[in-house]
Structures are given as C-alpha cells and as structure tokens.
Amino acid sequence: MPDKNPCPNCKSEFAYSTGGALMMCPECGNEWNPADAKSEQSERIIKDANGTLLADGDSVIVLKNLPVKGMPQPVKAGTKVKHIRLTDGDHNIDCKIDGFGSIALKSEFVRKA
Hints:
Layout: E1 16-17, E2 23-24, E3 31-32, H1 34-42, E4 60-62, E5 80-81, E6 85-86, E7 93-97, E8 101-105, E9 110-112
C-alpha cells in the first residue's frame, strides 16, 4: 500500500518508503525526505525580470511584445496587468488582460509595477 506522499518530482502516487526517513519513486527514481518536501512546497518563490519577489494580487508590466497563439496581435510591451495569480509550472503567472482574456505569462517577461 503506497504512502500518502506523492513524488515531488513527477507527482507519482506509487512512492514507497526505503525503510528509513527517505521516500523513493519507482517511476522517476527520485529520492526525497518527506519532511523537506513539505517545507519546499510552502515556499514558492517567483521573481520578475529584475529579481523582485512577486506575490498573488500584485500588478506587473509586460516588458516586451508577446505573441499570443490564435490572436492577430501580440500583448504589447508596457501593458499593465493587475491582480496576478502565481501558479506552478513554466508559465507561472495567471492573469486577465483586457482585450485578450485569461492568459498565462512567464515571470521573466514582466516587472513589478
């Protein structure tokens, strides 16, 4: 019976204890300490292009024109985006831009307003 500690690397639910304090994932081979993994998950650090820490609800400014799939025009540089939401993954900012709707942005292309 698998423990209730999914792999932090691949999110596999088939992780098992190695007999000590460590857990092992049979799918990706990752080994971790569950106590350390819980503290890392609570500390999500996302920085803008200038290295400033971002938080939920911040306002940011787009630094360069960003093409959007399915749209005839890009998101223009200098566009101010209010009330961002931080997420996990490659595109770590969810927001709503007037004229575009909901969109996901990378933090490396924005700066805090």
